[in-house]
Amino acid sequence: MKTLALNIKKVVLSDREESNVTLLIADSRSSAISTRLTKADEQIDLTDCTVFPGFIDVHNHGSVGIDVTESGPVALEKVSVFLASQGVTGWLPTLVPSPDENYVHVARSVESMMQEKATGARVLGIHYEGPFVNAAQCGALHTSYFKTYSRPTDLDCLRRVSLGVNMITLAPEIEGGIELISELHKRGWVISIGHTRADMKLLDTAFENGARHMTHFMNAMAPLHHRNPGPVNWGLLRDDVTCDIIADGIHLDPSMLRLLVKTKGINNLALISDAIAAAGKGDGQYQIWGETISVKDGRTSNAVGSIAGSVISMLDAVRMMRSLGLSDVDVARMASMNPARLLRIDHECGSIEEGKRADLVAIDAGGNVKLTIIGGEVVFRQ
After folding, report:
1. Which end of the chain is more exposed for a tag (fewer CB within 10 A), N or C?
2. Which of the residues in the chain have pLDDT under 70?
3. How far is the C-alpha of 38 from the C-alpha of 34, rounded, in Å?
4. Nearest partner of 31 among 374, 353, 375, 361, judged by Cα
């Protein structure tokens, strides 16, 4: 059994930080944390770094010029390699509403990747953003592919992956929405509410039928109004509902990020990138989802001026939350543990604990990724 010892300046655990320690990895698992140097087959010096649990991105449409919705295994692997360089150890390829054949092709590609040894961030399953969403809150999604629900066979368009997580973002107010949620819940899907204008009563019913999470909270949903409470009000009020947020300073102003942390609490918030194919490419114009999407100063926009996803990585989101004064323990919860809990894999990953997968990222004093380890193996080294 090969052993690896990481000599660390600071390690971020689920409830505290430990300084000047050695983390021992054996057989792909974190096996011990000690204040003494430990004998191992290999030693890595990280005495200038903070080690976090690997980031988990549950909402990512692509990066480095690759669009998930049109990609096969080779292209998805390139995204995985890039994400690993950004500290991501697990992610969900996320599809926008598209022709059914695209869904089938990508789902097959995802399953193929999950059967192979990853050379980058692990693909954990698949996330369908739509097509069962509200056209009045379409954002940058193409309404021509939106659907309603009347019978179980209407789900045949969504190809499940058998080896991982199946997640969907939907709007409960669409025709047949509650019946849709109930059926998906029976089938074991992770159900998130988004692109919605649902009222409080309907959202309560959606919760009772299995929808317990909200996608890119406050974006692509009816805004908060003091006489017409809707999804934002509902999400803020319910402590048993979790939300994910795009911490790029564009989708949500930094002061709003502070407010959400104060009102929802760290345990109920998860960071996502909502990255599109232009992520990692810089400013410019890109052909994505059948249209031209412009990126200027890190802000995306389509032809009608709507924000069209982001160009950040989870590392950028982590940097943003650290810049707002959050502790590394709280940031790790938002970037790792809470996404793992949402996907029901927190028994396996999401925090640095003895017996859990050794999925780790080492960040230097400048906030850059120096090392990413997945399943005990180094997949990126700066």
Report:
1. N
2. none
3. 8
4. 353
**Hey, what are 324's tokens?**
């707002």
Domains of the chain, earliest start first: 3-51+367-381 (2.30.40.10), 55-346 (3.20.20.140)
In whole angstroms, what is the distance from residue 58 CA to residue 126 CA?
9
Q: Which of 231, 254, 221 is nearest to 322 (CA)?
A: 254
Annotated active-site residue 253? The verdict is no
pLDDT on residue 222: 97
What is residue 103's predicted lDDT score, i.e. its pLDDT? Answer: 95
**Is residue 183 a contact partner of residue 211, using CB atoms and an 8 Å limit?**
no
pTM, full prediction: 0.97
Q: What is the pLDDT of residue 31?
A: 83
- The predicted pLDDT at position 149 comes to 97
